[in-house]
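Retry 2 of 3 after timeout on previous attempt. Resubmitting C-alpha cells to design endpoint.
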C-alpha cells in the first residue's frame, strides 16, 4: 500500500492544474466518498493521457519506410551515410521544423522541409568516421509542426575501425557520359603487424567491375589498390551503390565502400516518373519537370494521348529548362497514368518520355487518421 499511496499523492499534485476554484471548494468540504470518486476519475484521465500522446505520434511515424539502420563495420574516414525516406501520405501540407541528434558521431540533415500530398523527403544521417572510432550509436529526433505537432525518433549505429582506411573516402565517379563508362581507384590500407587479406569484393550492381592489385605487406600495414569500372552500358541517371570488401578478419568480415556518380545522356529528364498524388475531380495540379542537355536547345511543346497534360513552349535556347506541366483532372476518376512526350529542336525522340501518375478522387482527411489527437 505505501507505493500505491505515494502514486496517488503524486497524481493529486498533477491534477491541481485541472481543478477549478469551485471544485477545490467541493474537495475541501465534500465527503470522503466524493473525494475518492473524483480522484479516481482524474487518475483514469492521467493514465490514458500518455497512451493518447503515444498514439498521436503514430501519424508521423507511418510516413517513414524505416526508422533504424545499422551501418555495420566501416573504415575510418570513409563516407558513410543513410537516407531515411518519408512520404506525406496525408491531404494536409507537411512541415518539418528540424532534426537533432543525441550524439556527435552522427550529423543529420533534412533534404525537404515542406511537402505536399505524396511528396517525399529524406533525413540524411552522416556517420562521422573521421572524428570517432569504435562502436557508436545515435537517436535522431525529427520534429514536425504541421499538420500537427509530433516527433519521430530514428536510430543509427555502427562500428568505426581505426585500423582500416580508404583514400579517397569513397568511389566518386563524377559525371559520366552515357555509353563511355568510367574508372576510379581507391587505396585500401590496414594498419597492423599481422598480414591482412581482402578475399573478395562483392556488389549488387551488375554495372560495376572490380579488380584488386596484389597486396603489399610491411611490418606494420597491408595495402591494396582497388579499381572500380563502370560499364559503358550503364543507364542514364544517378549511380548510388556499395562494394562489400570481404576480409579474413573475423572481427570485421565485411566492410562497405560507397560508390557514387551520375551517367549523363545528351538529354536527361528529372523526374522520369512524375507522381501528382491525389487530385480532386475537376481540379488541376502543376508540377515541374527539369530537362537538361549538353548543348542549348528549345522546347517546342509537350503532348499526351488525350490532352490532359499541358505546358507552354520554351523558345529561348538553354542547356536547362524547367517545365511547369499542368494536369487537368476533368471528369476522370480513379488511377490515371499517361506518357508525356516532350518535343525539342534536338530532333525526334531526343528526350525520354515521362510517366505521369495521379489518383483522381476526394482524398481522405488526415483528421480521420488522427482522431486520437483530440
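Retry 2 succeeded. Sequence:
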Amino acid at each position: 500500500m505505501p507505493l500505491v499511496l505515494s502514486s496517488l499523492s503524486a497524481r493529486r499534485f498533477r491534477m491541481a492544474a485541472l481543478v477549478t476554484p469551485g471544485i477545490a471548494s467541493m474537495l475541501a468540504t465534500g465527503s470522503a466518498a466524493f473525494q475518492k470518486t473524483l480522484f479516481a476519475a482524474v487518475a483514469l484521465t492521467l493514465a490514458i493521457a500518455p497512451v493518447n500522446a503515444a498514439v498521436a505520434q503514430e501519424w508521423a511515424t507511418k510516413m517513414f519506410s524505416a526508422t533504424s539502420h545499422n551501418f555495420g563495420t566501416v573504415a575510418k574516414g570513409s563516407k558513410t551515410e543513410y537516407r531515411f525516406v518519408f512520404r506525406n501520405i496525408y491531404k494536409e501540407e507537411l512541415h518539418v521544423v528540424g532534426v537533432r541528434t543525441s550524439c556527435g558521431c552522427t550529423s543529420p540533415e533534412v533534404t525537404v522541409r515542406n511537402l505536399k500530398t505524396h511528396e517525399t523527403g529524406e533525413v540524411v544521417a552522416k556517420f562521422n568516421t573521421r572524428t570517432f572510432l569504435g562502436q557508436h550509436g545515435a537517436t535522431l529526433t525529427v520534429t514536425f509542426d504541421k499538420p500537427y505537432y509530433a516527433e519521430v525518433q530514428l536510430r543509427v549505429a555502427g562500428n568505426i575501425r581505426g585500423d582500416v582506411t580508404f583514400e579517397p573516402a569513397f568511389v566518386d565517379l563524377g559525371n559520366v557520359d552515357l555509353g563511355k563508362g568510367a574508372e576510379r581507384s581507391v587505396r585500401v590500407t590496414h594498419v597492423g603487424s599481422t598480414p591482412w587479406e581482402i578475399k573478395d569484393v562483392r556488389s549488387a550492381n551488375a554495372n560495376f567491375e572490380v579488380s584488386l592489385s596484389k597486396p603489399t605487406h610491411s611490418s606494420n600495414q597491408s595495402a591494396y589498390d582497388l579499381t572500380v569500372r563502370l560499364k559503358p552500358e550503364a543507364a542514364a541517371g544517378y549511380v548510388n551503390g556499395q562494394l562489400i570488401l570481404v576480409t579474413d578478419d573475423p572481427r570485421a568480415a565485411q566492410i562497405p565502400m560507397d560508390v557514387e556518380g551520375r551517367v549523363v545522356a545528351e538529354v536527361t529528364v528529372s523526374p522520369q516518373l512524375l507522381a501528382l498524388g491525389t487530385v480532386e475531380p475537376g481540379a488541376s495540379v502543376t508540377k515541374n519537370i527539369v530537362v537538361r542537355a549538353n548543348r542549348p536547345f528549345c522546347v517546342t511543346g509537350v503532348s499526351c494521348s488525350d490532352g490532359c497534360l499541358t505546358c507552354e513552349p520554351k523558345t529561348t535556347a538553354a542547356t536547362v529548362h524547367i517545365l511547369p506541366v499542368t494536369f487537368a483532372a476533368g471528369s476522370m476518376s480513379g488511377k490515371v497514368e499517361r506518357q508525356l512526350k516532350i518535343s525539342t529542336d534536338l530532333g525526334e525522340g531526343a528526350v525520354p518520355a515521362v510517366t505521369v501518375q495521379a489518383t483522381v478522387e476526394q482524398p481522405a482527411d488526415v483528421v480521420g487518421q488522427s482522431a486520437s489527437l483530440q
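Attempt log closed. Residues 32-61 form the longest helix (30 residues).
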